[in-house]
Amino acid sequence: MPGAEDLLARLIRSGCSHSVLSLSAHNGLTQRIFGLGVAPLFLRVDGRTGPTARSKKQPLAKHVEMLRQSIGGRPIVLIGDAVDDVRAALANHVHPVPYAGGLTHPDVLRRSGVPVAETLAEAAALAVAHAHTA
To answer: I need a labelling partner for 41 at 20 to 30 A (CA). Which of 7, 18, 79, 90 fits?
Structure first.
């Protein structure tokens, strides 16, 4: 998305780190991220390596476990564009920030009961605010 790379770089300069978890196939995901030139901005990039998963809950548990090896006890916030992202985050004790600019209609995300960010910049601000209060 326009402005995402700059936003990620600014967040890194402020002390944040980033990772990617997707239910997309791992090889295709990594090729896309490398192709966009943003791979160096992420601590981890994890995509699906087995059969298609119905939920992000288990993949997120593994992703969080691996992140903890790099970031220790620092807060983890999941910015996602699906209700499943919110559910997976809550199930894994990760703070969710739903983003209205993705796959799921914003009204559906709002029914999750978690404040929904309208822009990536707002999602990042909500994530940083949570990290500083956690």
So the answer is: 90
The alpha-helical segments, DSSP class H, found in the chain are 4-13, 26-36, 57-71, 83-91, 106-110, 120-133
Q: What are phi and psi of 72, to 5 degrees?
A: 65, -135
pTM exceeding 0.85: yes
**Alpha carbon separation from 119 to 16, 68, 134 (Å, rounded):** 18, 28, 22
Residue 101 and residue 118 in contact, taking contact as beta carbons nearer than 8 Å: yes
> Is-contact 12 22, C-beta < 8 A?
no
Measured at the CA of 28, the angle between CA 27 and CA 34, to 5 degrees, comes to 90
Whether the per-residue pLDDT at 106 is higher than 80: the answer is yes
